[in-house]
Write a structure and sequence with these properties.
- By secondary structure, the protein is an alpha/beta fold.
- The protein has three domains: about 90 residues; about 200 residues, 3-Layer(aba) Sandwich (Rossmann fold); about 60 residues, no CATH class.
- It has an eight-stranded mixed beta sheet, with helices on both faces.
- The longest helix is centred in the N-terminal third of the chain and has 17 residues.
- It starts with 8 loop residues before the first helix and ends in a 6-residue tail after the last helix.
């Protein structure tokens, strides 16, 4: 049910991502379509979504208000003073919208600070699904997805968390790290968990597989979707001028690359978002610093260490990850206990990143995978 609200691919994807819960609400759809007609740049994006959120808040429509405030917040750089307000309103309206659900909110100490955690417990459940996001993830998105699509998963308790570089954690100065086994292992220690299933969404597909390669207490891992390397996301839609990057360890090259990327960002919304957000979550100041750091976010060299039962999801029209990574990764994970792969196409639906527009298809596969009996060695 993926829709074309806007011509720009990046903007249209984000509208679909956060408005997906309201696809069947004709009243809200009319509002969204009318709003999107007013958007020609990122300032109009912010203004219109913020105004929509304010109107919905005043009318007590907290769920749509929350989505609107999150969209208003999405492209604001961390330096923009308006971001604190939109983030606060997004969270306030979100938690008003889920007040009736039985969710335990807690925090885990980590590196002298805290990581936000939400837990949904099911009576008699002995299994644990640990769920985290990726590049631009908030805990609230995970909560909404779990409420919507995993409510029938009776044999599992669900633990969702924001790791370094995500949500409140990055606001406290905990920047994202490629060695995701560190926060995952700390979490398993703190909550005394063993034999868990780990699911990572978006860039979390890489993060979860990386953690699984180093942490034996992860028995099953779900890449929702496949994400082999953060550089894939940068290069897949990058302008041609950035197709062959020179040696970024050379200071003179760094200056030239920074100048080129900054120029391109002024006219390329997709590139500007990726560079700006990467600076924020990685704690970097320049494009060249970002590019050097994201090269560390790759499964290269650890694929053979993954020994778990693995589910790989992918879409043929993913705007961040080439679908060719699926057979490549399958071939490299030579020691995986089992690999189950699902590739969503235009014909099946779910062809976009993380199956935006048809998430029910992805979560049906995830639920089936979780319910399968596997005699894990």
């Amino acid at each position: 049910m993926y829709k074309k609200y806007l011509d720009n691919e990046q903007l249209n994807f984000q509208v679909n991502r956060f408005i997906e819960p309201f696809y069947l609400d004709e009243k809200i759809q009319k509002k969204v379509i009318a709003l999107c007609k007013k958007i020609t740049n990122l300032e109009e994006w912010y203004t219109n979504w913020y105004q929509q959120g304010t109107q919905e808040y005043q009318e007590g429509n907290f769920s749509f208000a929350s989505a609107s405030f999150q969209l208003a917040d999405f492209f604001l750089p961390s330096s923009d003073e308006r971001k604190e307000i939109t983030y606060r309103l997004f969270k306030e309206t979100f938690y008003k919208s889920v007040a009736d659900f039985n969710i335990e909110y807690t925090k885990m100490p980590y590196q002298g600070k805290e990581l936000p955690v939400a837990i949904i417990k099911n009576p008699q459940a002995k299994n644990w699904l640990v769920f985290h996001g990726g590049f631009d993830s908030y805990l609230e998105e995970l909560i909404r997805l779990s409420i919507t699509y995993l409510s029938e998963l009776r044999d599992y308790n669900i633990l969702m968390f924001e790791g370094p570089g995500q949500g409140l954690a990055v606001k406290e100065g905990l920047y994202m790290t490629y060695d995701w086994e560190k926060p995952v292992s700390a979490l398993l220690d703190y909550y005394q968990l063993d034999a868990v299933t780990l699911m990572g969404m978006s860039l979390g597909g890489y993060l979860s597989l990386r953690a699984a390669s180093m942490e034996p207490r992860i028995h099953r891992v779900i890449a929702f979707d496949v994400f082999y390397s953060m550089m894939d996301a940068f290069t897949l839609k990058a302008p041609e001028e950035l197709s062959n990057l020179p040696d970024l360890t050379v200071p003179e090259v760094q200056v030239a690359v920074d100048e080129k990327v900054n120029q391109l960002c002024k006219k390329n919304i997709d590139l500007n978002f990726k560079v700006s957000k990467a600076k924020e979550i990685l704690g970097k100041k320049t494009p060249s610093e970002v590019l050097l750091e994201i090269q560390k976010f790759s499964l290269a060299g650890v694929e053979a260490l993954i020994q778990q039962d693995v589910l790989l999801l992918a879409g043929t029209q993913d705007i961040y990850v080439p679908v060719s990574r699926v057979p490549f990764l399958q071939k490299e994970m030579i020691n995986a206990y089992r690999i189950e792969t699902v590739i969503f196409t235009n014909r099946s639906g779910g062809q976009f990143h993380c199956q935006v527009g048809a998430k029910m298809l992805a979560f049906k596969k995830i639920e089936d995978f979780l319910n399968e009996e596997v005699n894990y060695k």
